[in-house]
Amino acid sequence: MKLQDYDISTQVIASVLSNQRVTDAHSRQEVREIEMVVDEHFRVLPGQNIGMLVPKAISEADEPHFRLYSIADSPPPTDGNRHLHIYVRRCHYFDRLTGQNHQGIASNYLCDCKSGDELTITGPYGQAFEVPKNHHANLILIGTGTGIAPFRAFLNHIYRHQPEFAGNIYLFYGGETGLDLLYGNNHDEDASMYYDQNTFQAIEALGKGNDGNRFNWSDALQPRAKDLTRLLCDPTTFVYVAGLKNIRDELEEALIDVAGSNQRWHHWKQELVDDGRWIELLY
Question: Largest CB tally within 10 Å, which of 31, 77, 116, 274?
Answer without folding.
Answer: 31
